[in-house]
Structures are given as C-alpha cells and as structure tokens.
Amino acid sequence: MAGNLLFLSSSSSPLPLFSNFPNLQTLAPYPRKISQISCRAASSPSPPSPSPPSSVEPEGTGAATPTRGDLYLERQQSMSAAALVLKNRDKTRRKRRNGAKMHTNVACCYGCGAPLQTTEIDAPGYVNAETYELKKRHHQLRTILCGRCKLLSHGHMVTAVGGHGGYSGGKQFISAEELREKLSHLCHEKVLIVKLVDIVDFNGSFLARVRDLAGANPIILVITKVDLLPRGTDLNCIGDWVVEATTKKKLNVTSVHLTSSKSLVGIAGVISEIQKEKKGRDVYILGSANVGKSAFINALLKLMARKDPVAAAAQKYEPMQSAVPGTTLGPIQIEAFQGGGNLFDTPGVHLHHRQAAVIHSDDLPSLAPQSRLKGQTFPAVQNDTATDSGPVDLNGFSLFWGGLARIDVIKVLPRTRLTFYGPKKLKVHIVSTAEADEFYQKELGIILTPPTSKERAKSWLGLQAVKQLNIKFEDARRPACDIAISGLGWIAVEPDGAVDPSNTDVEMEAGELHLAVHLPKPVEVFIRPPMPVGKAGEKWYQYQELTEKEEESRPKWFY
Ligand SMILES: Nc1nc2c(ncn2[C@@H]2O[C@H](COP(=O)(O)OP(=O)(O)OP(=O)(O)O)[C@@H](O)[C@H]2O)c(=O)[nH]1
Ligand SMILES: [Mg+2]
C-alpha cells in the first residue's frame, strides 16, 4: 500500500496526493476504486494525466478513471464470479430435476405415495416381500396398496404422524419444510397449481406461502367442503366473501371455485378451468393437511371418467382419502389427461398453528366435521333445541369449546350472541368466569373433550395462551366479526343478536366488545369479516362495492 501511495504522489499531477481522494468519493458507482488503484500501482503504472485535473471533475474522467487494465481486471473478476454462480445454479437445477424425477421413478404406494418397502411392517409403504417380488416381476409395482392404506380403506384411523401416539412407524411424516423442499422445483417449471382451502377452516388452511411454491405459475383456488356449510347458506354470498378475503392475499389466482367432493358441486367448473389453463402442463393439487386434496382428485376423476377413457383408467388406482391429516405421504402421479400433462396429488402441509398439530393423534378424527354444520348459539334463542341454554346476558361468563378453547366474555352489549360453528363432537359449555379455571381442571377429559380421557388430559398442553380481543363494530344489525380458531372452526359474534334487518326496534349502536380467547400456545386465532352463512347471512351480507377496474381485476368465482 505504501508503494501505491508513493506512486500516486510521484505522478505529474500538481495536486497533492490526498486532494485526489475527494475524486474517489465522487466515483460512487465504482466502490472498488481503492483496491483497483492498488492493483494498477503494483502491476502497470499508467502514464501521468496530460491535463491538470480540476478540483471538481466530471464523473469518470479524473485520475481515478479505470484504465484498460482496470476494466480488464474487473471483467475477469465478474466473469469468474458469474461462472461460479452459473455452475452452482446448474448444480441446483440438476439436483432439482433429479428430485422431481425421483418421485416418479421410485415405486410408491398408489394410495399414499409412500415409497414401497418390505422391512418395517409398522411403517407406511409396507408390502410383504413375496407380493413385492411378484408385482415387480410383472411390472405392476404401481398397483400396490401399502399396509397402512389397506387399514385406512377399512375405516381405521391411522395417522402417519410419528412420535405423537400415532402410527408407530410414522417417521415418514413430512414436515412443512421437507414438503417445500420436495416441491421446490415447481416454481422453476411451467405447471398449473390447484390450491385447496377448507371452507370450515378457511384462515387456518389458507396456506398463503403457496406463493413461494407456485412462483409465477397460475393458481386455481378451490374451496372444499361447501356441503358442510349451514343449511340455507347462499353460495353467491360465500363466493363474494371468499374472493374479497383472497384478494388481500395477493396470489396469482385465475378463478375461485366453491366445491364439494361429496356432492360434486363445482367440480365440473374446475375441470373446465383446468382444461382451459393447463396448456399441456402438469397439474399439482396443493393445500394444507386434510383439506380434501385426495377426495377432490377422486371427484375430478369420477366426473372426467364419463367422457375420458384415460381418466376412467386412472380411477382404478385412486389416492387414499381419510379423516386423519397426513394420509398422503408423497407426491402421487396420476395419468388423468388425454392431452398430455399429469395430475399430482401431494402430501398436505402440516401447519403448526392448527389444532391438529397439538391434539393427540387418536383425537384427530373429532376435528373433522362429518355432516352439515349447525351453529351452537349462546345465549340460546328461545326455540333453539340446545340443551345447555345458559344465561341471557353473556357478560362475566366463559364458554369452553370442548377442551380446546375458552372464550371469556369481558364486556359486550347485553344481548350479544356467540354462535359456534365446528365439528359436532365438540360441545360448548358455559360457566361463570370466576369458576372457569376450576371447572376446566375438573372436567377436562370428562365433559370437556378432546382430550378424550383423563389419562390423555395429563399430557395435554393446556390453554396457555390468552389473546385479548377488542372488537370494534359499527352496525349492531349484522355480526361484528368471526373469531376463527385455526384447525377448528369459527365463532360468529353478533353484537345484539338481531341479525334480521327488518327488525326496526334495533337501536343502531356502534361500540367495542371485549373478549379473551384462551388456546394452546401454537394455535392461532384470526379475526375476520363475518362469513355470511345460513338463511340470515343472505339478508345481512353486503356485496363488495367495486369500481369497473376492480371488478375486472378480481378473480371470478364459480360453483
Ligand atoms: N363433507 C365433505 N368432506 C370432505 C370433502 N372433501 C374431503 N372430505 C373429507 O375430508 C377428509 C380429508 O380428505 P382427504 O382427501 O384425505 O384430505 P387430504 O387433503 O388429501 O389430506 P392429506 O393427504 O392428509 O393431506 C376425509 O374424511 C374426506 O372424506 C367434501 O367436499 N365434503
Ligand atoms: Mg391426501
């Protein structure tokens, strides 16, 4: 460095050495100037500047202007850096491509996608050695259903979640990170993404991070299980509500479909949208665990099989569906389309913030609603058949939703009602807040279930997290909001219970409601605009007022 300084100071420039440094500062786009000067000095000294530099020189013309040597050196450096990046990128691409191919080359159970194995009888993918050899000889490995899937198909609830009281060989359970890694090739390929969201757990199962997986690929958004919505629900209102909620998530959604794999509502619409958007690409069905991906594929094949012999053939080896999250364990490739491109079922993403992540695996089926939701309302309306009618004014009371959640009513309007929408197996119990702690300790595992036994209650996390909710509302004639509990359902909060707008007695009252929600620590609670369900929903729901431009840019919804 001393040599460098010496060189500069011995140049013919009349300016002292340090007066050149301001020039260096003006050359901000060349931040490596000082080291470049060092190199130049050390290797090939450049001739002195012919004209005396002024104190304010235009950028890139002073003594520090890169010489051809500098430029050569800089280009060499950037070329070698680029070569390194390209080499690494090629390596990653090759790895990704191999990874993507891997799941198509390894023989997997067609029901769950777990790699076939003959050694661990208690692990997913197990098939006895003779069957395996026989099928292998006949090139029929793709027709094998593993031991766990056979149990599932006979109605057994076998979760694949290892170390959670579930399937003892459940080490093949895939974490959200592993799944992302497995599907990371998607954002670099041209594929069509069909993203599924469960209407009963809209916020908990939404999986906004699908954006990272999908890249720039288009997304068809499919809302599943709409057959479970309360009787009288107008799907037009639900469609508008869903699109409004989705718009906020900023996804590349082409269209929204309200579907039921049970009643086949909306499935035909998704098929024609897939045909329109597919353009020879592979189609990936993505979503959180248990949202109904495999059931949706079965429904898709069922309808497509009516016209398409390829889909009819694919129906023979359908993916397994079951009420336990973690049914599908690996990507399953299905040759479902005549015109090229395959359909892929994928394992569900297990989100840590859903109730399914914290309860005992044997209790998981109790989180899955089996039939149409019917709200449990508190205080009960007069003609309601609810057995536990409770008090008329909720202030000072606590409501337990099974053993999984507790809502303390701190301050609400005297006639506020709370309506619980979720699995029927979870009953709601109400006690005064003063007795709530004792009641919970005494009744957990007995009447407050799940956890479904005193034994299981011992290892229960408890409701350690308390979230204070201050809910503002403007119009007491419609619900103020929904309190959605991830993986469970939601509670509609109606400030005074008069959701019938024809009721002119209702005083228009704006205000604030104060509630406290107690949950297991990882479980999330979402406050959202109320979902317009039941006959009343249609009456109070107000469609979004949109400009023409907004109308055009929003995805359309179908059912
Ligand atoms: N009522 C109703 N139930 C459904 C519907 N779709 C799926 N289910 C039920 O939801 C549960 C989960 O369905 P699956 O298809 O196994 O869900 P999945 O998303 O593939 O689950 P994983 O493979 O574990 O990620 C099963 O009990 C299905 O019967 C639907 O449209 N309506
Ligand atoms: Mg599945």
UniProtKB/TrEMBL annotation:
Mind telling me which PROSITE patterns this protein's record contains?
G_CP (PS51721)
Q: Which GO terms describe its molecular function?
A: GTP binding; GTPase activity
Please list the residue ranges that the record marks as compositionally biased, kind Pro residues: 45-55
Its domain of life reads Eukaryota
Q: State the residue spans of region: Disordered.
A: 38-67
Q: Where are the transmembrane segments?
A: none
Q: Domain CP-type G spans what residues?
A: 176-352
Q: Which PANTHER family match?
A: NO-ASSOCIATED PROTEIN 1, CHLOROPLASTIC/MITOCHONDRIAL (PTHR47569), NO-ASSOCIATED PROTEIN 1, CHLOROPLASTIC_MITOCHONDRIAL (PTHR47569:SF2)
Protein's name in the database: Nitric oxide synthase isoform X4
